[in-house]
Amino acid sequence: MSYTLTDIAKHIGATVKGDGNITVSSLATLAAAKNTQIAFLANSKYQNQLKDTLAGAVIVSPDMVEHCPTNALVMDNPYMGYAMTAQLLDSTPLPAVNIHPSAIVDETAQLGNNVAIGANAVIEAGAILADDVVIGAGCFIGKNAQIGAHTKLWANISVYHECIIGERCLIQANTVIGSDGFGYAPHDGRWHKIPQLGRVIIGERVEIGASTTIDRGALEDTIIGDGCILDNQIQIAHNVVIGENTAMAACSVIAGSSRVGKNCTIAGLVGVNGHIEIADNVVLTGMTMVTKALDKPGVYSSGIPAQPNKDWNRMNARLRKLDDTTKKVSQIEKALNEAKKEY
C-alpha cells in the first residue's frame, strides 16, 4: 500500500514542496526513515535530526520548510498531519473477518450488515450488533447489549447485559464493560452484596485501552461521553459520568458517583475520590489525588516528584517536626504581639 505525496497532501490538507509524484508506503521517525517512507517534525527538540534525515518526505510546519533537505508536506499542525497519514497507511488487521464457525450467536440476537465475529465469541439473547460491527475472538456480548455501527472490539472483551456502546468506538483487548460496581452493605460483621442494577452507556467515537474496567451503575447508569479516550488499565467505578472529549491516561481511577466535565485531561496514576464533581477543561497532572470538588478550569497537581533518597529522608524528618515548629512559631508570634502592646 503506497501513496504519492500529492495524494497524501490532499488527504491531510497540506501543500507539497518538491516532487509530488514520489510514493511512500509507511511512516518512520526522522532518524530511522528511508527514502520510501514519510516522517514528521512536530517537536522542536528533534529539529537537529531534520538536516540528516533520509526520508522521502517530511511533514513540517511553514517555519521549518527552509530547513528540510527533502520533499515536504507543509501544514500548520504537523502532528495532526502525522495522525491522518498514519490512518491512511494503517495496516492493522481487523479483529475478525466474517462470522467464525466456532462463534456462538443466540438466535434472538440481531446482526446488521457486514458484521464480523471472531472465533469462540459468544453473543447472547437479545443483543444488537449494528452494521459493520467487528467482534474479536473470545469476546462475550451479554443479553440485550447494544453495539453501534462501525465499532470494533479486540479479543477477549466482556460487555455485560444491557450495556450500550455507541458508533465508531474502538476497544482494546481484555477490557470489561458493565461489571458489578463495588457495592456492599455492612451488617452484623459481614458484607452484604448490593446488586448493581444500572448499565454502562458509552457514547460515539470513544476509544478504550486494554484491560480497562468500567463498572455498571448501582441504580443509575455509568456514562462515558462522546469522543472520550481512555488508556490501558483504568478503573471507572459505578455511576461515574465522564464528559465529552475527556482524555484519561493509564492506571488512573475514578471512584463511585463522581462526575468529570468535558474536555478534561487526566494524566497517569491519578486518583479521584467518590462523589466529587470536576469542572470542564480541568487538567490533572500525574499522580494527583483529588479529594474535593474542582469547580474551576485549570491545572491541578499533588504528586511529589522523585528525588534522591537522602534529600527525601531529610525532608521527611523535617516534616515530622512541622507540628512542633508550628506551635513554637505561634508562641513567638503571641509573645511579640504582647510585647508590642506594652509599648
Describe this structure in words.
There is one protein chain. The chain has 343 residues and is an alpha/beta fold. It has three domains: 3-89, Udp-n-acetylmuramoylalanyl-d-glutamate--2,6- Diaminopimelate Ligase, Chain: A, domain 1, CATH 3.40.1390.10; 104-300, UDP N-Acetylglucosamine Acyltransferase, domain 1 (3 Solenoid), CATH 2.160.10.10; 309-342. 15% of the residues lie in helices and 27% in strands. Strands 8-11-14-17-20-25-28-31-34-37 form a ten-stranded parallel β-sheet, with no helix packed on it. Strands 10-13-16-19-24-27-30-33-36-38 form a ten-stranded parallel β-sheet, with no helix packed on it. The protein is flat. It starts with a strand and ends with a helix.
Question: Which short descriptors sum up this protein?
Answer:
UDP-3-O-[(3R)-3-hydroxyacyl]-glucosamine N-acyltransferase activity, repeat, 343 residues, N-acyltransferase activity, UDP N-Acetylglucosamine Acyltransferase, domain 1, UDP_GlcNAc_AcTrfase_non-rep, 3 domains, Udp-n-acetylmuramoylalanyl-d-glutamate--2,6- Diaminopimelate Ligase, Chain: A, domain 1, lipid biosynthesis
What is the number of E strands?
38
Shape: flat
As a percent range, the share of helical residues equals 10-25%
As laid out across the biggest beta sheet, the strand order is 8-11-14-17-20-25-28-31-34-37
The SS-based structural class is alpha/beta
How far apart, in Å, are the first and last alpha carbons? 89 Å
- Hey, roughly how much beta strand do the residues contain? 25-35%
Domain module count: 3
Mean pLDDT: 96
Low-confidence stretches: none
Tally of alpha and pi helices: 4
- CATH T-level topology of the largest domain: UDP N-Acetylglucosamine Acyltransferase, domain 1
Find the CATH superfamily of the largest domain: Hexapeptide repeat proteins
CATH class of the largest domain: Mainly Beta
For the sheet with most strands, the description reads: 10 strands, parallel
In angstroms, what is the radius of gyration? 27 Å
By CATH, the architecture of the largest domain is named 3 Solenoid
